[in-house]
Amino acid sequence: MAKLGDWIEPHPHGIYVRPADAWIDPSEPEPQALVTHGHADHARGGHGRVWATPETLAIMAARYGPQQGEPVAYGETIRLGEVEIGFVPAGHVLGSAQIVLDFRGERVVVSGDYKRRADPTCLPFEPVPCDIFVTEATFALPVFRHPDTGDEIDKLIARLHANPDRCVLVGAYALGKAQRVIAELRERGHAAPIFIHGALQRLCDLYEEHGVRLGELVPVAAAAKAAMAGHVVMCPPSALNDRWSRRLPDPITAMASGWMRVRQRARQKNVELPLILSDHADWDELTDTLTEIAPREVWVTHGREEALVHWCQQRQIKARALALVGFEDEDD
């Protein structure tokens, strides 16, 4: 009797779907790749053909140059070899998808990275019942329970209003997190111009091109120092303590990341205002998702694999950790 999912082969550099002769999120160039989303630990250039959502292909083109892309819209089904393949929203960043694989009566869902919180910049996660659910485990420890998003944004706005002679400099990853912070600020009624580091411009423009309204964004390079007092300034995390920040009016340093739950990380980065804002599911959201989907098996790709595997085993759910490499926290 064939073993469940024996047609899916985890390798250190990605997941090989044998009857489709295609790889999911390979970290090395492959002739055929299915890509869940545009972050660098899941997407790269150099593949022969790439199947992904139109938004992910646009992000890959912006970051890595032209792709041999085959766009697959949410809800659309394609066929490679003997495998039917669909893309459904993952709620992680613009264009992020879970890849649904159907082969000989078995269904495998490779979720990529996902979150369950509302996000004005992308479609929400769509649960898909399946036999095998391949899940991330970035924040798979009970200590990681993300606070309310609105409360974190309110902290940012309150600090801004309390210091009208200063700016609040928010470090946020260039793809997904920066645009989400801007959009969340807009949803809380913050209509003032937001100043951005040049490294964020291209992807903010791309989000706007795909219908995500970010309001007035002003390049820091085009602004006088005094004009930025009392305003939010956005930059990639690498620029938080860089010489670049000296052009700003006495910045209050903030960072938007799920890792800001860990005080030591905030101290290491000299963050004065930690904002716990993650694009990954927290512990409760991971376990609630597994309960909702009710797969026969759970495969855990990266992060705190042991805790999530243990949680599954306690509930008589067969689980295993996959030894994938190169999946880090570009987008935390």
Automatic annotation (TrEMBL):
Keywords: Ligase. It comes from the Bacteria. Residues 11-173 form the Metallo-beta-lactamase domain. GO terms for molecular function: ligase activity; RNA endonuclease activity. This is DNA ligase-associated DEXH box helicase. It comes from Sphingomonas metalli.
